[in-house]
Design goal:
By secondary structure, this protein is of the alpha/beta class. It contains 3 helices and 4 strands; from the N terminus they run E-H-E-H-E-E-H. Strands 1-2-3-4 form a 4-stranded parallel β-sheet, with no helix packed on it. Helix 1 links the parallel strand 1 and strand 2. It is elongated, with a radius of gyration of 20 Å. It starts with a strand and ends with a helix.
């Protein structure tokens, strides 16, 4: 089973996944967070990983960015169970194409509006 977190960071989600909740997952589970750091308590996650509560974890967001040298994630006992990425999960080719297209549309809309306002 896979739990993939897709939520904003707010008062309701900050620290949502702590040790008590993580250890309720199947030992064969994978946990992925590509939404916001702070939703998963990193020290609790490391404890759960070290105790074998999860099969693996993928993160591309962190409680504090950039990741400091003393971050508990960097001292996990089984690093092969942990994949850390620099917040790039959003950047598929399709997402980047859509982003550039929307930027171009916004610029064109601004130029049309500016042109209309100067000729009025």
């Amino acid at each position: 089973d896979v739990v993939s977190v897709h939520a904003p960071l707010n008062d309701y989600t900050a620290g949502l996944l702590d040790y008590e909740k993580i250890r309720l997952m199947k030992r064969t589970s994978l946990l992925i967070n590509t939404s916001r750091g702070g939703i998963i308590r990193e020290a609790d996650l490391v404890r759960a990983l070290d105790e074998g509560c999860l099969a693996g974890v993928g993160l591309d967001v962190f409680e504090r960015e950039p990741v400091a040298a003393d971050n508990p994630l960097l001292s996990v006992q089984n690093p092969e169970k942990l994949v850390l990425l620099p917040h790039i999960a959003w950047s598929s080719q399709e997402a980047r194409t859509l982003l550039v297209d929307r930027i171009a549309e916004n610029i064109q809309g601004f130029l049309r509006e500016a042109s209309t306002n100067t000729h009025a």
